[in-house]
Structures are given as C-alpha cells and as structure tokens.
Amino acid sequence: MDIETNRPTTAAPASLGMMRWLHRAVEWLAITLFAAIVIVAVVSVVNRFFLGNSLSWSEEFQRYGHIWLVLLAVTIAYRRGAHIGVDLLHDMLPGRAAASLRGAIDAAWLLLGVLICWSAWKILGVSSRQISAGLGVTMDKVYAGFLLAGGYMILSAAEQLVLRIGGEVRS
C-alpha cells in the first residue's frame, strides 16, 4: 500500500538476488496449481453430467490442491503487503518505532514459518504409512506442501528482515 495515496502499489516488492527467481517460481507454481484445480473440476463436471462417469480422485486432488494453493498464497500475499492489517498503531508511532514494529512483524512471520516446518516434519514421519483413498498416494506427499510453504515463508521473512535492516523495504 502506498502510504501517501492509500492505494495498492503495482511495483514488485524488493528482492535479494536469486530470491527474485524463487519468488517468480513459487508464483508460477501457484498459478499452475490453480489452473490444474480448475481443469480437473471442469473435467469432473463434464464426465459426471455428460458422460455419466465419475472421477474417483478429482475431489481429493482439488481439496489437497486448494490446501497447497492457500499455503503458498499466504506467503505471496505477505511479501506483497496484501494481507489485511490494522495500521492504527503503526501510523501513530514515530519513524523508528514504526520500523521496529514492522521488523517484529517480519520476525513473527519467520517464527510462523519455523513452526509450520517443525510441525510438518513431525507429521511427515507418521503420514508416510497412510495412503490417500482417492489419489492412492502416501499422505506424506500431501503434507510435504506444509514443509515447502513453511520453508518458503522462512526464506521470504528472512529476506524481508535483511532488506528492512538495509533500509530497502518501504514501511
């Protein structure tokens, strides 16, 4: 959000070197995943209503795809400053205190990513013996999305902290 005009900014957020490629890859993964969900839904509807045949795996694919999509989109929105927030406290604070608050928020995102990865790692061991009924894959492949998204969240939050310390991130 542009503070002066109170309008969303169209410029891409600041990035560190190779992280630019990672951000682009994750965004393309989210786009591809969304397209796959839509295609599977359309094919499922066409099969069910026009051909009288149901795809047994389509509902699970869409459900797990949505979970992965949300997990990735949370961090994409964080990087772009697109999450809803209450700026009252931030706006009342002087420059340095406001910047410190933003840094604390970035540190909280980093901690959240660590907790997601830690929890996902614990679940992966147990879920490797469970098989998804519709897709027929082991559930550790499904839960790997949490590890992937948590890792991306850690990298993005760490990048934001480094950029903020270097003065390259707008408050």
From TrEMBL:
UniProt keyword terms in alphabetical order: Cell inner membrane, Cell membrane, Membrane, Transmembrane, Transmembrane helix, Transport
GO BP of this protein: C4-dicarboxylate transport
Domain of life, per lineage: Bacteria
Tripartite ATP-independent periplasmic transporters DctQ component domain ranges (all copies): 37-164
UniProt topology in membrane: Multi-pass membrane protein
InterPro entries recorded: DctQ, TRAP_DctQ
Cell location: Cell inner membrane
MF term (GO), any: transmembrane transporter activity
GO cellular-component term (any): plasma membrane
Principal place of residence: membrane
TM segment ranges: 28-49, 61-78, 99-121, 141-163
The keyword Nucleus is assigned to this record: no
Family: Belongs to the TRAP transporter small permease family.
General function of this protein: Part of the tripartite ATP-independent periplasmic (TRAP) transport system.
Complexes and interactors: The complex comprises the extracytoplasmic solute receptor protein and the two transmembrane proteins.
Name of the featured protein: TRAP transporter small permease protein
Species whose genome carries this gene: Paracoccus zhejiangensis
